Amino acid sequence: MIRGSRRGVMLLIVLLLMAVFLVMGMGFIQQRVGQNSAANLAITELQAQSLARSGLEDALTKLAKHHDFPPLSDVSQNKYVYTERVVNPGGEDIGGFTVSIDTRYQTNTFWIIRISSRGFLGAQTDPQAQSTVFAELDMSKVKRPLPNANSPKVPNPKFFKLLFVTKGEFL
Predict the structure, then answer these.
(1) Considering only CA atoms, which of 107, 106, 123 is closest in space to residue 115?
(2) Whole-model pTM?
(3) Binned average pLDDT, 10 residues per bin, the chain of 171 residues
(4) Strands 127-138 and 112-122
(5) Relative to the CA of 23, which of 42, 54, 56, 156 has its CA 20 to 30 Å away?
């Protein structure tokens, strides 16, 4: 009789240990699932940021190659917006970018163009992830003299150079 009760106790101890290991294993698996979700979220955010930067590069290329870009229909129009879709080599839709070119600061004083590009992964109306980058581009071919200075016009070393690129909102 004592021998049978020892076996019963051992069986309970083994079952208890198995339950503890099961709970620990489930916790470990849950932790890995959380880490996997975080990694996937980081990947989609990086893809959206890459699409936003692609939109910025697309706008810079169009500005460099076409002297009449952006095609403004009216003298008072100072903003041009366009959207392009991006597909992979298999023809599968990845996402796209929406570029906004603001020329209101392209005056005799500044000659600056502001560009914003919003990259989106998936459908534009309901993206999986999105990211926006902003940039300012110096469009003055000559260096602007200081006010009340009689300096000659010299070539602007920053012509068609990005003054800054940032992620987030313009102030």
Answers:
(1) 106
(2) 0.71
(3) 72 92 91 86 91 93 85 81 93 93 79 90 89 87 60 67 67 40
(4) antiparallel
(5) 42
